[in-house]
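Final report, Chapter 2: Outcomes

The project's central promise was a pipeline that accepts a single protein chain and returns its three-dimensional structure in a standardized token representation, suitable for archiving and comparison. That pipeline is now operational. To close this chapter, we reproduce one record exactly as it appears in the project archive, with the input sequence first and the structure output second.
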Amino acid sequence: MFTGIIESIGIIKAINYDRSNINFSISSSLSNELKIDQSVSHNGVCLTVVSKEEGAYTVTAIKETLEKTNLGELKLGDKVNLERCLKVGDRLDGHFVQGHVDQTAICTYVGNENGSWTFTFKYDDKNNNITIEKGSITINGVSLTVVNSKKSEFSVAIIPYTFENTNFNSFSVGTLVNLEFDVFGKYVTKLFNKK
């Protein structure tokens, strides 16, 4: 379980293919604090640390993860948002985030609002995922509040701190991002769509 409050930016240092899996070696300010078998959110995807070296660690993404997320698009030098799992008793500053990406979306608009930014994303609504105004959404692991919710499209407003301390500052029109919809909203939607 995560909160969607990004702790650090990781940099992809190596990409190694192992059959249908990909091993990513990542360096970050968290690298030396991590332990093997620890869960870490990478762009909103919960992955397990499988090995460590000085200043870097390695995680493995399997075929299903690669098909449902943007991790298969990563290149050397790319930035990923990192968050360690929530400790029992910690404050929940974002919202409940499982680290299970529901689907991807495409950035369709980036607007500089003279001190903040607006980003719009379009997603395929075939899975009945929805957003609501002022509801929670996770984009690349970042807990955010939805503004301007429409069918298969929504926007978020980004403050300077989030822009500077996540990989939102590398987004442009056409960027593929990971979405995790609010877990409570998913249960309610499932109940109402039961036949």
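Archive annotation: The longest helix spans residues 183-192.
This record, like all others produced under the grant, will remain available to the consortium after the project formally closes.
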